[in-house]
Amino acid sequence: MTELLIYPLLASFLSAVVVTLIGLPFIIRLCRYFDYFDVPNERKVHRKPVPRLGGLIFMPAAVVGLFVASRTQVLLGGEEFVFGVSTIAMTFGALIIYFIGFVDDRKGLKAIQKFVIQTFAALILPLCNLVITDLNGIFGLHQIPFWIGYVLTVIVIITIVNAINLIDGIDGLSSGLCILILLAYMVLFRENPAIASLDAAIVGSLMVFWCFNVFGKIGGSKIFMGDAGSLFLGYVCAYMSIKSLMRPIAPVDCGDEQMLISITLLLIPVLDVMRVAIQRRLTGHGIFEPDKTHIHHIMMNAGLSMHVTLACILSLFLLICGINYALWQCHFLLPLIVLTDIAIYALICGVLMAAKVNYRGER
Predict the structure, then answer these.
(1) Which of the residues 6, 61, 271, 278 could staple to 19 if both were Cys, CB 3.0 to 4.6 A apart?
(2) What is the pLDDT of residues 274-330, one digit of tens each?
């Protein structure tokens, strides 16, 4: 990376860190004053009320980070960031997701209400030509008709948004995965300073939040991100994933396999939400009916503590990234790599389910 990019990225990251360090304590005090808490119930692993609006800081931190990065680039002799139609559309869709997440955190919404609004937000990106039109060999398919790609893109966005949201069940998991995912996209979009700086800002904000969330004490600095944060992160990850398919941005010439990058980065949360949805249908439960069958629940039921579960899932993410890179280097076809990933995930879940001991950790 050239200095013209490194310094704006660093400025974006650090300014978001500062905004989050200042903003989170204020949000915690606000939650206590207005009694905005995540109250324990039979589904949740924490046993005491915890402030739940920490995710509200992500968007302001991203905006400040982008502004500072743009000014830094100008000071270095570069041009101000120019945002395309797709980025503006993503901002509008993210605002909708952000708002509905806040309303859900405060008043609670029915799953179908959230789904309808998520669908509306998802429809925005394909209108700006962010459409998946090439499956790169998955199911033996390559180019697909535009209208099929449009529908598929909306389904992918909704799936990713909910995957990031629903895997946010233990301290540091959703935020930890998003840190790794967005760091990867920051590198992949290194030739696009605006998008790379957006990733850097959100990563900076997430790292501060992660420390408050994982190491904070209940009654002190501990806070949850809430749906406003997790839905926003899911929408940003969905945008990055689809945007990355629009042109060859991989660090190496991967030909028809560039879809593998996005599949790899989002595999764990997406596989988890798909498995849970299928399991609910097979057991006669509604897809939107909450339960404790996500991968972090399975690990804790097998006797692992919350922090060990967190470490295991983040390690699994890195393991899958390593395996997929090795298989790609050995010229394995994309469908075979994906099937290998699914087999690894299924094996781990199967072993953990067999070791179930009905453990309930404390959050």
Answers:
(1) 61
(2) 999 888 888 877 777 777 889 998 999 888 999 999 999 999 999 999 999 999 999
Question: When comparing pLDDT for 1 and 213, which is higher?
Answer: 213
Q: Vertex 59, ends 155 and 236: CA angle to 5°?
A: 25
Output the CA–CA distances (angstroms, integers) from residue 8 to 66, 88, 106, 198, 202, in the order listed.
9, 20, 36, 10, 14
Please determine, for residue 359, whether its predicted confidence score (pLDDT) is greater than 60. no
CB 121 within 8 A of CB 191: no
- Residue 128 and residue 162: Cα distance in Å, rounded? 22
Q: What is the pLDDT of residue 258?
A: 74
Binning pLDDT at 50, 70 and 90, where does residue 251 land?
Answer: very low
Give the chain as a 3 state SS string. CCHHHHHHHHHHHHHHHHHHHHHHHHHHHHHHHHCCEECCCCCCCCCCCEECCHHHHHHHHHHHHHHHHHHHHHHCCCCCCCCCHHHHHHHHHHHHHHHHHHHHHHHCCCHHHHHHHHHHHHHHHHHCCCCCCECCCHHHCCECCHHHHHHHHHHHHHHHHHHHHHCCCCCCHHHHHHHHHHHHHHHHCCCCHHHHHHHHHHHHHHHHHHHHHHHCCCCCCCCCCHHHHHHHHHHHHHHHHHHCCCCCCCCCCCHHHCHHHHHHHHHHHHHHHHHHHHHHHHCCCCCCCCCCCCHHHHHHHCCCCHHHHHHHHHHHHHHHHHHHHHHHHCCCCHHHHHHHHHHHHHHHHHHHHHCCCCCCCCC
pLDDT digits (tens, 9 = 90+) for 41-69: 666 666 678 888 999 999 999 999 999 99
**Where are the domains positioned within the chain?**
3-266
pLDDT of residue 173: 96
For 143, phi and psi rounded to 5 degrees? Answer: -65, 135
Task: Identify residue 262 by its one-letter amino acid code.
Answer: S
